[in-house]
Write a structure and sequence with these properties.
Order of helices and strands: EHEEHHEEEEHEEEEEHEEEEHHEEEEHHH
Shape: globular
CATH topology of one domain: FAD/NAD(P)-binding domain
Structural class: alpha+beta
Radius of gyration: 21 Å
Distance between the termini: 23 Å
Helix content: 25-40%
Strand content: 25-35%
Strand order of the largest sheet: 6-5-14-15-16-13-17-20
CATH architecture of one domain: 3-Layer(bba) Sandwich
Oligomer: single chain
Largest sheet: 8 strands, mixed
Length: about 375
């Protein structure tokens, strides 16, 4: 019998939904609460590397992910010149194994829906528009008060509530994400026929101009700039700013600019990072995913690391007969070094760009290769 019989998961993102699937399908009574009223219908794309795809296969959603997304096995580097000249084509490492693509892009809302639907099929009870407002715990369980007036008692609470985690603060962990000095614009647009993988352009008016196909007809494009307060812009102004910044880039970028309409999804986010240095739990409350560690998307490992947290935590809980805090300590000890290495590498790439470190000193391909070797081994 698993070490826990009832679990509350706070947050329905990548880590939370994965944990819900893994625990519920083994008979654990899982409640998942998500503050959003539902899964958004529109949003940006996500880039998933092989180690994330390996977990998605284990979760039973790989066939649907493959059908909804766009797989590829190389990375292109282009120049910020009038032709968008291809200067390098780099084969990607198949970090999920030889039978999975190296990388796959897909719409974020589609991935979220696939995972939450799978969690529901596994038996998890999902409640949208609900957040915890307080919890108290004793040696045998956690009492939780929820914002809709309901209460519950659980063997374990899993805080998968993101980078600015309420659960982390309630545990008294005084760690907040720090800005890396960059901001990213993302738009979701039609895919030009010539775009068959991620291509990155370094230089020009932005640090990075990149795109990733997310399906047969769609892709997302992104621009990374010095972080700014863009909160006061209207949607139309956001589109105008994106179009203006994108004017430095050509090739497929000419199609991106031409495809922008008043209805185009666009968002702006700051690059932030943190790692909780000590315990990732307090009593019977534990953190996973971005609640425990977060990184800028410079090496596309954020969701993958959250998936890996869920796998390791579930493995330990399901293998034990009785609960002991040592299980949560073992989880963090097994995950901390790997997650920290990924976070530090992601921040280092951002810092090299911010400081305009010359390529002779900033070995981005070498660093990414080392991370690929690391994550090829299952967590």
């Amino acid at each position: 019998m698993p070490a826990v019989r009832s679990v509350l998961i706070v947050g329905g993102g990548a880590a939370g939904s994965a944990a819900a699937i893994l625990l519920a399908r083994q008979g654990v009574a899982v409640d998942l609460v998500e503050e959003r009223p539902d899964v958004p219908d529109v949003g940006s794309g996500i880039t998933l590397q092989g180690n994330a795809l390996r977990v998605l296969r284990d979760l039973g959603v790989w066939d649907d992910v493959r059908a909804a997304g766009y797989p590829f096995d190389s990375l292109g580097i282009r120049a910020p010149d009038p032709a968008g000249t291809l200067v390098a084509e780099i084969p990607d490492v198949r970090t999920g194994g030889p039978d999975l693509p190296a990388t796959l892009g897909m719409p974020r809302p589609v991935l979220a829906r696939l995972l939450l639907d799978q969690a529901a099929r596994a038996g998890a009870k999902i409640r949208y528009g609900v957040t915890p407002i307080a919890f108290t715990q004793d040696p045998s369980g956690v009492n939780v008060n929820l914002g809709d007036g309901s209460t519950g008692r659980y063997d374990l609470v899993v805080g998968a509530d993101g980078i600015h985690s309420w659960t982390r603060r309630q545990l008294g962990i005084d760690v907040e994400p720090a800005s890396t000095g960059m901001g990213i614009w993302r738009v979701h647009v039609p895919r030009p026929a010539a775009v068959e993988r991620t291509d990155l352009t370094y230089g020009g008016r932005c640090y990075i101009a990149g795109y990733c196909p997310t399906g047969a007809e769609t892709m997302y494009a992104y621009l990374v700039e010095d972080v700014q307060d863009r909160s006061g812009l209207t949607h139309a102004e956001q589109i105008d700013v994106f179009r203006d910044l994108a004017s430095s880039y050509h090739g497929a970028w000419d199609d991106v600019r031409a495809s922008l309409t008043p209805e185009t999804f666009v968002n702006y986010a700051r690059f932030e990072s943190h790692v909780v240095p000590g315990d990732w739990h307090g009593g019977r409350v534990v953190l996973i995913g971005d609640a425990a560690h977060s990184c800028p998307p410079t090496i596309a490992q954020g969701a993958a690391q959250g998936f890996e947290d869920a796998v390791v935590l579930a493995e330990l809980l399901l293998a034990a007969d009785t609960f002991d805090e040592a299980l949560l300590t073992a989880y963090a000890e097994r995950r901390r070094e790997r997650a920290t290495t990924v976070v530090e590498a992601s921040v280092r790439v951002a810092r090299w760009m911010l400081e305009r470190t010359p390529p002779s000193e900033a070995d981005v391909p070498g660093l990414m290769r080392r991370i690929s070797v690391l994550v090829t081994e299952p967590a």
